[in-house]
Predict the 3D structure of the following.
Amino acid sequence: MHNITFKTLSPQSQTPLSTSRPLNIAVAGTGYVGLVSGVCMAHRGHYVTCVDINEKKITMMQQGLSPIYEQDLEELMSLNEERLNYTTDYKYAYKNADAIFIGVGTPEQPDGSANLSYIATVARQIAETVEKDCLVVVKSTVPVGTNDKVEQFIKDFLVNDIKVEVASNPEFLAQGTAVRDTLEAARIIIGTNSIEAEDTLMAVYEPFGLPIVSVSRRSAEMIKYAANDFLALKISYMNDIANLCELVGADIEDVARGMGFDCRIGSKFLNAGIGYGGSCFPKDTKALDYLATLHGYELRTVKAAINVNNDQKILLYKKACQRLITFAGLKVAVLGLTFKPGTDDLREAPSLDNIPLLLAQGADIYAYDPVGSENFRKRFPETSSEIEGEYGKGSINYVRSAEAALDGANVCFIFTEWGEIKAVMPEDYKRLMRTPLVYDGRNIYDVNKMRKNGVEYYSIGRK
Ligand code: UDX
């Protein structure tokens, strides 16, 4: 018996289950979606082979290591190792699978549309290798109607005389809590166009013991976008209201609290801040807007969410520009680089919008992030202020603590609400900084406490 502790899972989710209908499952792509889904399906009793083209990643996983930073994932990989396989050999994985899940990326293209080339590659490999009837399940977020095309594409290239159907099964996992979001999901959406396909997906998900919403393929595809874009809209709405709160002397935290008690609104995702980032909301809002345009429809609400978010990301920088003559020669502390806590992911993080602006103005940046610095360094290598860098005359240094970033700083920007950053006390800013001037994009501190401790403090939607 393994002695494993989980940080995020309830007692029921921690125990592996055996199911009366275990399936042979292959999962294409071992990113956040593919790997987490594969490991969780093994935890619920299925035999899962995870496939990726990246040999380095596969070797890591074979050694029990997760290539992504995600709580409880490695522990779950270890607990279910008997039912998990990792390989680059897709033929071996696909040929006898009952179901093949596709969890590869659908990155945004310059025009906002989703790039489906990775899905097409996997679909073709499936068509050329499967040897028995199977269900292909698209987990990646794809524009409505894509599953129809994937099914036709597989049929066009099918080598053996077998039946392959396609189903839609969007996921709603958030990074940092991906394992919990999968094992304890609010609901599982399955989109199928036949009883057989529905039955196979029921066999996959019955052992999860969660509510299952079974709809048509197109509706399932739409649920994913509609849900994500609604959440993005909720955040942009709160950011819009927050900006107005500042102008009229109201406090967005109080406003959100008062709104959240109404169960028609709900208290979650009402946090105003420096805008949403990550791999989903920015991409999925643009993709739905693009899809609507293709059909001659203007999706005005989602467009508004996108516009508000674009402005929100550099709001604090603009405020700081009104207060300071220049950033040249100033030591700027940046606390938090990732798009949210609990992940090393930088995709669409507000830090990526702000740091080039600060560097171009000649700021000497001292950045701290508990896990994101290594990834950030790859895009913005450490430079010294003597060197005229690609982004202007500024410099960027990565430090190991919030205190080191704040030491002697003239101004501080907070971009991510990591626990390590929240642990910095108001008095520490006064003690450590040369001038305690703080721009907080996550409303971490009580305004009055900061003021009492002699900090000049600017946040979102609060006077
Ligand atoms: C999101 C969805 O939550 C998930 O269901 C979907 O499958 C993928 O997209 P994720 O991007 O990992 O997950 O993170 P999430 O926690 O939803 O946060 C997204 C962004 O919104 C972050 O930048 C976060 O800081 C921001 N946010 C979230 C706010 O600004 N305010 C809030 O109240 C909540």
Q: What stands out?
A: The chain has a mean pLDDT of 94. The first strand starts at residue 24 and ends at 28. The chain is about 40% helix and 15% strand.
